[in-house]
Amino acid sequence: MTLALIVLLPFLGSLCAACLPASARNAEAWLAGIVATGCAALAASLFPEIAAGHVVRLSIPWLPQAGLELYLRMDGYAWLFTLLVSVMGALVVLYARYYMSPRDPVPRFFSFLMAFMGSMLGIVLSGNLIQLVVFWELTSITSFMLIAYWYHRPEARHGARMAAIVTGGGGLSLLLAVLMLGQIVGSYSLDDVLAAGDLIRAHRWYPAMLVLLAAAVLTKSAQFPFHFWLPHAMAAPTPVSAYLHSATMVKAGVFLLARLWPALAGTELWFWLICGGGAASLLLGAASATFQRDMKAVLAYSTVSHLGLITMLLGMNSELALIAAVFHMMNHATFKASLFMATGIVDHETGTRDLSRLSGLRHAMPLTATVAFVAAGAMAGVPLLNGFLSKEMFFTESLQAGGTGGLGIALPALAGLAGVFSVAYSLRFIHQVFFGPPATALPRTPREPTRGMLLPSALLVLGCLLIGMLPERTVGGALAIAAHALLGDRLPDYRLAIWHGFTASLLMSFVALAGGTALYVVLYVRGRALRRTPLISRLSGKRGFDVLNVTIFRGARRFVRTAFSQRLQVQLLLIVGAAAVAALLPLWRGGLAFGDAPLTPLDPTFAMLWLAGAICAVGAAVQAKFHRLMALIMVGCVGLVTSLTFAWFSAPDLALTQLTVEVITTVLILLGLRWLPRRIQFQEPLRHTLRARLRRSRDAAFAIAIGVGMAALAFAMLTRPGASRLGPFFLQNALEPAGGRNVVNVILVDFRAFDTLGEITVVGIVALVVYALLRRFRPAAESIDVPRAQREGLIGGGAHADPRALLPEGDLKIPAVLGRLLLPLAALVSVYFLLRGHDAPGGGFVGGLILATAMIVQYMVGGALWVESRLRIHPQVWIALGLLAAVAAGLAAWFAARPFLTAQVLELHAPLIGTVHLSSVLLFDLGVYLLVVGAALLMLVALAHQSLRSPRRELPGAVDGAAL
Amino acid sequence: MNLWLQHLPILPIVVPLTAGAALLLLPESHRAARLTLAVISMLVQFAAAAGLLYLTSDATSQAWPADTAVYRIGGWPPPFGIVLVVDRLAAIMVALSATIALSVLVYSIARWDRPGQPFHALLQFLAMGLNGAFLTGDLFNLFVFFEVLLAASYGLVLRGAGTVRVRAGLHYIAVNLAASLLFLTGVALIYGVTGTLNMADLTVHAGLLSGPARILFDTGAAILGVAFLVKAASWPLNFWLPDTYSAAIEPVAAVFVMLTKVGIYALLRLGTLLSLNEAAASTLQTALFGIGLATLAAGMNGMLGAQRLVRLISHSVIVSTGILLAAFGLGIEALTAPALFYLITSALASGIFFMLAGMTARMRPHDTQHARPVAMPSPPYVAYGIREPDAYDTGDEVGVAIPAPMAFLGLVFVCCVLLVTGLPPLPGFVAKFMLLSTALNAAPGAISTWLLIASVIAAGLAGLVALTRMGSGIFWAVTERATPRLRLLEAAPVAALVIFCFALAAHPGPVMNYLESAARSLHEPQTYIRAILPEKTGSDRPGTPAP
């Protein structure tokens, strides 16, 4: 439970902090401080158990399917890190209280800081690797937010993104490595993984897994070649740099390396990858740090270098080196965090961090100078300070790790050279800032900061001194517990002491001190404005990152331009092409076989009919772009031929429906044609370029091929023996029990009424959509004028005919009379078709279309205004009522405890009329009827109102939408 | 079983239909009544979906035999009549679409349902089409419901003004009509050969086919597959998607996310039912896998190349289609449940993200036209080290205080990024982890497994790169901007979905259990067939269908 509390407490604190007002600086600091010290106290309370060598565990079920649970596990090593994270957290909170400006909106800062602390504790305490990945990514995210805290500065945004992408990418790599590890071991539990070292190292995936893991660890710990994000993360407020980018988050990488060390280390590959990466970072970081101008940049590169040192130690495959690494993790955290805090103080008090501007601050801020001096000494590895101890251990190990060959010389040489640089930059850091003549022209007059700001830094420096002088008394015990947790029985004999006698490593330490001092003197004499690191300044990871970034974005944009066409033609071509390929695949394998059903003898009349139809179809396609009216007429002809074909093959229902549909659609499109803009004038030369010709011939060939293919498929289907078993069932059941002689209608309103219900919904929706679209439609300028025939009075009526006149003037007088006489007749016929539909050709669909046609005639001869001033139809209501009627017909069955749409019959015995046979099926058909009328009229109204809307000049009151 | 409860399967279809029709009757002036009706309808659908989830779960094994409900519409026995089939997969999809539709409805009440447009009715019809497509057990009826949802989507995408929107909308209509034509052709071929439309019966009869009939059947199935791939937005049949989704208003785009999932659902449902022999199954899988990877790559590049947030999200929808197709294409049964989990999270993620985009669009410094691209800071601005940090003075730096609405938007944006890229602690990570670990577990040595893993990881990284850039451009690059006025109605559904996502990540166990049962029954077509056609025990069939 304590473990869960340690992880949860910071997250809860984060939530609370986010809710506090922006000015609550003290409350925030108190909250965060209590949380951090609370975590530390909780961890400390577990000391007796940990010291006894126990492992504290807590598991909560999470994802049993993958064998995962939330598993918190604290052994000595995790305990040490928990303490480090929470104690550093408390100190940083104290520091941040004074560092952050009173005007700063700190809730965001403390909220993310605590969330980060929780994530970091989560990494440390994770007992399974997937959970570790979760917290690992959480630290990346919170770090992103913290770096970008001052997001109005471009470098903060850029630095945050860079850090997030590099470490986030590393996290993905870690996920992959962990997945492989889990696959190898068969479990993601840390206990199991640690116990399966031999299995892992012998597995064929080991190299790949290790490379991925190394990528993750090296990115997180800012190691070469991924180190470049760390200096740019310095755009964060200094407390963040002190906490995340020196003491904790960057330690997550080396933490994991040490955590998995017992299971993974001990191979050549491990040595080359880890030790190699560490060595490169150690040297490059140290060298770069020597030549920085920004105090924080010096510290950032120095952090790269020191983490390189730790990584190198971990890569050496020696137990003693592992202990040294853990020791140095602690030491580095203490002195580097205090140096960051000192830098923050200097920045805070003088207003700049530029080494070339700062000078002689020891006069103005002696306490700060002392603190920074001691901490920098620890960083350089001066004896009696903690940095010296671990560095000496490092030198010892570097002397042994290389063996006897060339490596045996190269490693110590490299370590020594890095030591020289480290002394040089530490010296420069102190000397240029605090020594020399007092600086003039600083943005602010320097003075000692408030006690509270200095206190955390001073406490850390005190730690450096105590550990440096009394290592065994202070941290010996904790280190032993951690080392025992990592190594168990393999724990070698080691001794933390200042004095090991005159050894080669001691000599190296002094050579480094002397060499570093000499190097600094030379550089100082040559001028303090050495801005660029010699040789390696061109190897800028940031530059590479940016170039890669831009290249990726440009490449992606280019790819999208080529791979996603915005042209409809291309898309349709691809769809049809894909269908053709898909259809050809099985045909390719098996071939298309035509059936052997006897062919009906060809009737010459029918052949002529179809020839005409085919010519019309082709003609419509050819003319579609050049002569819309012609194309439409020919499409109408095709429809006519189709309905004649239905009639020819004794399908009167289909023929009737097809005919009425053709009439309505053709008329509606004709009405719409009037509002289309004139056709596009082609530039003749463009039409005749080779490219255009090729494209057209390609499209034509493709269209012909697809048509032939479809025809072949259809022929193959038609010549096969019929397989349908639905047909016979429908025929048998239509009259009894379904009760209808017209099987087609029974299918539509009973057997498959549900399909019909869906389809009428589609029709209704489409009508609504057309109306909504045309309401906003503004016709092209050239189509707005009233047609010439109407303007010159050749034809009366039209949209603007006088609504009061009984009959339109001009040529439309007679048609108007006929059309109005037709309306009641047509209504009667339509109802007749509706009612007889169940037993004879007809039905709601046909009936509705007939009524709609009659109404269209009224609009055409009378004009919209004339019709609507006399007969208000509300098409939308018809649509709604139609749908509701159909649904009601379906729901009727519920009251008989039957499923939806089961036909219900009601026998009514009325006087005079006799027995009335009422069926829910009829109600359903009535719904179809109403909906079809409504849908057709709604589209008609949408078109008719165009002419009312565009030339508004002489209209008496807008009728726009009046019909609805 | 309760007399009225037996009608539960039809409710998700009848309720929105009735509500949509009734909404047409209510005049615009009765806004409160209209909204109440719409919300009640969605709530009933949501409740019905929850009921279906509960009744098909392992908790109530007594409700329906084999946890599969068969509702015979019109009382006609299958295969002659149309049946609705509720198995776990259908229940999940209905619940998912009800969740998103309900959120979108509440969200759109805040400011998107301008008068003069049948927005609410169309939304109801869209929900009806979605639910019908998920529930039906009849191939032609599936076509009908596709038409219903497409017709409604035409209206929704054309909602609003602007040349760009109308152009994109008309392209969308043309493409979908072409796809519907393919659908119909495929159905016709299949019906012509097997003589049946009921999916279970189809499975039985397709298994008996051989020779030329078999080839014609395969041809029909392949054409049908292309139609579904267009709907699911797989590359190169998805050029319409980014244009359409980014031109539509954001709540519409949010609910459109489900349209691609319908395509995936149809592929999954018919794919498992109709892949009868090993050869056909492996061909289908190889094709799906290749198409999936290509789609993923295209979507990934699209995310990187996007200049506007909505376009980026559109491409993330494509990426999720790619991942799903590739996962199904691996042909590993154990992968179905994680893939379904991924489907759920990706649908929620894109839905939330689109709704968020609708709110962030308002905080631009100048309220630009909806369809006009907003210039991002061009990459060279941040690249090539033009701006070296030479100002080392941060001593008196003061951050920018973020007003609460902006903080809300920012946090939701972060959550969306985590969901889309599959980063912890949101369920996107759980889904990705389950996918990859299951694939690795089932076929550790296969190249295809590694291709999938590499692609999924790369897509995550590309998403991170693109989204951090986009987010920093939207939220950080400009500090002086109008803080958008958020209304509770639009923030609440977004917040609710985000909280649901957190809950899903914290307790994925029960959901995964359900999904695993769903996947198991999906890969046992015999159970499905037996539930629908009890008289055909399957013993008369030569050869059991291959998974």
Backbone shape of chain A: elongated
List low-confidence stretches of chain A. Answer: 951-964
Provide the structure class of chain B: mainly alpha
Name the helix and strand elements of chain B from N-terminus to C-terminus, one letter apiece: HHEEHHHHHHHHHHHHHHHHHH
Shape of chain B: globular
* Binned strand content of chain A: under 5%
Quaternary form: heterodimer
The Cα radius of gyration of chain B reads 24 Å
* Average residue pLDDT of chain B: 85
Strand order across the largest sheet of chain A = 1-2
The end-to-end span of chain A amounts to: 67 Å
Total helices of chain B: the number is: 20
Structure, explained:
The complex is a heterodimer of chains A (964) and B (547). In chain A, a hairpin with a 3-residue loop joins strand 3 and strand 4 (914-919). By secondary structure, chain A is an all-alpha fold. In chain A, the strands form 2 sheets. A two-stranded antiparallel ribbon of chain A has the order 1-2. A two-stranded antiparallel sheet of chain A has the order 3-4. The radius of gyration of chain A is 43 Å and the shape is elongated. The two termini of chain A are 67 Å apart. With 547 residues, chain B is mainly α. Chain B is built from 20 helices and 2 strands. Chain B has helices at 11-25, 31-56, 88-111, 119-135, 139-157, 163-194, 199-207, 211-232, 240-247, 250-274, 278-305, 309-329, 336-360, 379-382, 404-421, 427-442, 447-476, 488-506, 508-522, 525-532, and strands spanning 69-72, 83-86. Chain B has a two-stranded antiparallel ribbon. In chain B, helix 2 (31-56) runs antiparallel to helix 3, helix 6 (163-194) crosses helix 9 and helix 9 (240-247) crosses helix 12 (309-329). The two termini of chain B are 33 Å apart. Chains A and B meet through strand 1, helix 6, helix 7, helix 16 and helix 23 of A and helix 1, helix 4, helix 5, helix 6 and helix 8 of B.
